[in-house]
């Protein structure tokens, strides 16, 4: 029996992998050897002989039948293990909610691309916000191999071609290419827990009741620790008021003849009130991060300044997205571990100050 397996690696798709199974019986039809031949070429085979069953000492017809049944079951089990060995992929969480969402989504995407089972034994901040399903607190990963990224926001093909063993993939993994093929599953995974979704629905329902036939654009303004000197030296850029003027104008040009309300949330509400002067703006009051997240990601479109929190708001909203293009400044330490086209999807629109 031969099973032809096609490689999932597009660079080797022309090479067929052949797995052959050969059964050997003795003269009494009671001893079975299972030979497995495998290589990347049908003309260069290697054999592995699995342990054979013990010979029937009594050689009776009844015992032969029983032995044959047991052997057949063992053979089927061995064949199943040879064809469909289950491999797992897990990860280790770092940072806050937005960072953890990137890590989790990339783990799921990398697993699905390589026929692995994604699993985590600790949910971090995610389980308090989303209805995560790939959680197994009892799984033991102590002997699993660690594979780490080389750069926090640059696509690495090595992560899409992991060795055939259980793996712990580590890093910030901030690249949409790792998981876009699994986006339907990831959107389901990032379904808000009922209490957060209920609060978001109530806020948006109130807005829509007051603003009939308005398009609601969520605006996330990240400042906080990004304005600190140490983070500026690392390379983080901060959007100025001029960026939001341009972003509002661009959104209006994309939605002609529409009534638009810009719903603004920020970790620096005072700065926003002082610097974002537009009659179409409504400011969200201070509330917990999960609530801000759920409200803005339920809007029709999104404008964001920088940071993974705003990135995921835009991705989940799945409308038109405008982002601040210089959130990582050139020729800084962070710049050399970052690639704009790997971090931001190409259908999003980047603007500068």
From TrEMBL:
Residues 48-77 are annotated as: Disordered. Keywords: Glycoprotein, Glycosyltransferase, Golgi apparatus, Signal-anchor, Transferase, Transmembrane. Residues 48-64 have a biased composition (Polar residues). One of its GO terms (biological process) is carbohydrate metabolic process. GO terms for cellular component: Golgi cisterna membrane. Belongs to the glycosyltransferase 11 family. It is a single-pass type II membrane protein. It is found in: Golgi apparatus, Golgi stack membrane. Its main location: Golgi. Pathway: Protein modification; protein glycosylation. Its EC number is 2.4.1.-. One of its GO terms (molecular function) is galactoside 2-alpha-L-fucosyltransferase activity. This is L-Fucosyltransferase. Residues 65-77 have a biased composition (Low complexity). It is an enzyme of class 2 (transferase). It comes from Biomphalaria glabrata.
